[in-house]
Write a structure and sequence with these properties.
Number of helices: 0
Number of strands: 3
Structural class: little secondary structure
Strand order of the largest sheet: 2-1-3
Largest sheet: 3 strands, antiparallel
Strand content: 5-15%
CATH class: Mainly Beta
Distance between the termini: 17 Å
Order of helices and strands: EEE
Radius of gyration: 11 Å
Length: 72
């Protein structure tokens, strides 16, 4: 079974590998788990699936469901 899938994760974080990079489809901000998120004080190493429910795009305030999986 492939760890990659097209488009949005559709709110199903269980489909995401821990190292998945996701991109906001509104402003193109990319969340990289190895970097975390300074704006929301998310420590490096936090997978997208482990982000708090209230987390939003630190660049445009878009909802987490607006993020799409980046296919390397």
């Amino acid at each position: 079974m492939s760890a990659h899938f097209e488009g949005s994760y559709l709110g199903d974080a269980s489909r995401l590998p821990e190292d998945a990079v996701l991109e906001c489809k509104i402003c193109w901000y990319q969340y990289h788990p190895e970097k975390g998120d300074d704006v929301w004080q998310i420590p490096p190493g936090t997978p997208f699936a482990a982000l708090p429910e209230h987390w939003r795009c630190p660049n445009c305030d878009g909802d987490r469901e607006q993020f799409m999986v980046v296919d390397d």
